[in-house]
């Protein structure tokens, strides 16, 4: 049995770099792709838009864009962007902090045998744990985002003004429980990251192996390939939970007179009774058009920004460098030792077993200069 290696706790600077790079990357992606996010959310909640008799099949996205611009102006394409951006900083800060910490713990349990790369199971555990913590911490902001994006389709409903007034109003009308509408599907949605992150890291590892280099040396094009393929796999596997989550988040007991879902099971039953299996994939095509570019932008931007920050301000070495061995190989600073003892001492301080940093999106971090 391999003994557990000591845990190398990340410095505050490394945690800050993780959160800053993740928030910046997410903000860039969210800003560029907000119109598609608005359409996707409305398709999930309200179904297909009214099509003209001459409307061509496959023009749902175009018709949705035209309806939003005609009824709400260009501003309608960016409804919910402010709470989306506001939620991103705590979202990525919590996710990357918890994900990195869990990876450190799992590395210590797996020991030096798997020092360079966590197993798929360990990656899944870290991703699910981080996803659950993030869902609980940021769910109120995502509830506000969903309602801001869909309120333009409600007639006779007093619109929400901004993030803070929305939070106050939801708490007043529905209680604090309203902040956590759709939390259970969100927790179920951790299955998405449980698929996406291990797939992303395995694809990166494969591309690095094919290119005879480390994952930290992958170029943006290779990172785009890894992020896009992993996102498609995860999205197709877990999309139905997003439909249920959006419908539960959108409903408010005092906001309209339509029948409400009493819970997750009731929502699933009603969606299936009304639309059948296709109802669980409403907006899926739009979602893929949004999430694939989003994943490419987010993951590639994260890697590039994180590398830039590390070059700008490298973290301090966590382990002292080993003392040079005496020429005869038989003595040390503490007295005489045998050659065998020196070998043991060398292994205990061998820098090849050190991990100077762990980037959350990369569990195969290596010190290439020392291998």
From TrEMBL:
<dbReference type="InterPro" id="IPR002067">
    <property type="entry name" value="MCP"/>
</dbReference>
<feature type="region of interest" description="Disordered">
    <location>
        <begin position="314"/>
        <end position="371"/>
    </location>
</feature>
<dbReference type="InterPro" id="IPR023395">
    <property type="entry name" value="MCP_dom_sf"/>
</dbReference>
<feature type="repeat" description="Solcar">
    <location>
        <begin position="13"/>
        <end position="105"/>
    </location>
</feature>
<protein>
    <submittedName>
        <fullName>NAD+ transporter 2</fullName>
    </submittedName>
</protein>
<keyword id="KW-0813">Transport</keyword>
<comment type="similarity">
    <text>Belongs to the mitochondrial carrier (TC 2.A.29) family.</text>
</comment>
<dbReference type="GO" id="GO:0016020">
    <property type="term" value="C:membrane"/>
</dbReference>
<feature type="repeat" description="Solcar">
    <location>
        <begin position="118"/>
        <end position="206"/>
    </location>
</feature>
<keyword id="KW-1133">Transmembrane helix</keyword>
<dbReference type="Pfam" id="PF00153">
    <property type="entry name" value="Mito_carr"/>
</dbReference>
<dbReference type="InterPro" id="IPR044712">
    <property type="entry name" value="SLC25A32-like"/>
</dbReference>
<dbReference type="GO" id="GO:0015215">
    <property type="term" value="F:nucleotide transmembrane transporter activity"/>
</dbReference>
<keyword id="KW-0812">Transmembrane</keyword>
<feature type="compositionally biased region" description="Basic and acidic residues">
    <location>
        <begin position="354"/>
        <end position="371"/>
    </location>
</feature>
<feature type="compositionally biased region" description="Polar residues">
    <location>
        <begin position="329"/>
        <end position="353"/>
    </location>
</feature>
<feature type="repeat" description="Solcar">
    <location>
        <begin position="218"/>
        <end position="308"/>
    </location>
</feature>
<keyword id="KW-0677">Repeat</keyword>
<dbReference type="InterPro" id="IPR018108">
    <property type="entry name" value="MCP_transmembrane"/>
</dbReference>
<keyword id="KW-0472">Membrane</keyword>
